[in-house]
Amino acid sequence: MKTKKTIFSLLALLLFLILVACKNENKTNRNSTPEMQSHEEMDVESNTGQSSKEVLNGDTDTGSGMHAQHKSLKDNFAHQDIIILENPFQPEKSTKDDLQEVVQAYLLLKDAFVKGDLKRIDDASATMEQKVADVVANSLKEDGLVAWDQHSKLYTGKLKELRHVTSLEEKRSYFSHISEVVYCTVKSFDLKDKMALYAAFCPMAFDGKGAYWISENKEIRNPYNGDKMLKCGKIEEVL
User: Fold this and answer.
1) Angle between the 93-115 and 168-189 helix axes, to the nearest 10 degrees?
2) Three-state secondary structure call for residue 7
3) Residue 4 and residue 223: Cα distance in Å, rounded?
4) Is the C or the N end of the chain the one with fewer CB within 10 Å?
5) Do residues 22 and 14 touch, judged by C-beta distance below 8 A?
6) For the DUF3347 domain, which residue ranges apply (predicted)?
7) In this structure, are strands 211-215 and 234-238 parallel, antiparallel, or unpaired?
8) What is the pTM of this model?
9) For helices 93-115 and 118-133, what crossing angle results, to 10°?
10) CA gap 229, 213 in Å, rounded
């Protein structure tokens, strides 16, 4: 009888130990899974700004777009110091007409580069420089005045330097800088109402570095490679 009681006591103790072990194991599993998942999600969110669920589902396109780091075409320009107004300044009609004359002169310069005609390029650059000087900036104030002051100085300096160098390739280098300024002028003063304008890009220009230009039509006429690659390029933005 005493032996049976001992056996029952041992069995009861063993059953108790088994129940305690199972309870602890379940508790450990419940605690470790969320902790591991939370740590994984924190790593993903710290690197991408998104939850792990979004990444695992392939939902990497946030509300601002997959390429949110490039909010503007200008972000890809070779010259990042050119002022571009987020909110375009609206000048008086006479000043706006003067600014549009600058753009028209640029388009003639672009055509000269397409032809690869050195004399025509120098003549067109002199005309554009004069159009820049003719802008009456009395109606420009605050941000508008600051932007045009910088743009006009860049135009004048780069156009003079363009005429100073002799080779077509050197002139094209200055033209690419001028093209970026034109883009910023058009965007800063909303100069697209009288004409359709397009920002085009040639990935092959300057040994694969690429370069932009502004055109009045969608048809590609490359000013950087001329007859060699006249149709090389694509429209990147409708201004």
Assistant:
1) 150
2) helix
3) 104
4) N
5) no
6) 102-193
7) unpaired
8) 0.70
9) 170
10) 15
Tokens coding 11: 């069995």
Tell me, rounded to whole angstroms, the distance of Cα 99 from its chain centroid: 25
Select from 14, 44, 182 the least CA-distant residue to 109. Answer: 182
Q: Compute the Cα dihedral for 118, 124, 130, 135 and give only its sign.
A: negative
Q: How far apart are CA 220 and CA 212, in angstroms?
A: 12
CB atoms within 10 A of CB 84: 19
Length in residues, the chain: 239
Burial of 191 (0-12, 13-18, 19+ CB in 10 A): buried
| Side chain identity at residue 200, one-letter code | A
What count of Cα atoms within 13 Å lies in the side-chain half-sphere of residue 88? Answer: 16
Q: Which long-range contacts (CB under 8 A, 24 or more apart) does 215-220 make?
A: 215/107, 215/110, 216/107
User: Tens digit of pLDDT for each residue in 176-216?
Assistant: 999 999 999 999 999 987 778 999 999 999 999 999 999 99
Give the Cα separation of 140 and 149 in Å (integer): 10
The type of residue at 51 is S
Strands of the chain, DSSP E: 198-202, 211-215, 234-238
* Tokens encoding 86: 């987020």
CA-based nearest residue to 131, from 107, 147, 164: 107
Q: What is the 3-state secondary structure (H, E, C) of 49-69?
A: CCCHHHHHCCCCCCCCCCCCC
DSSP state of 227: G
The pLDDT mean for the chain works out to 79
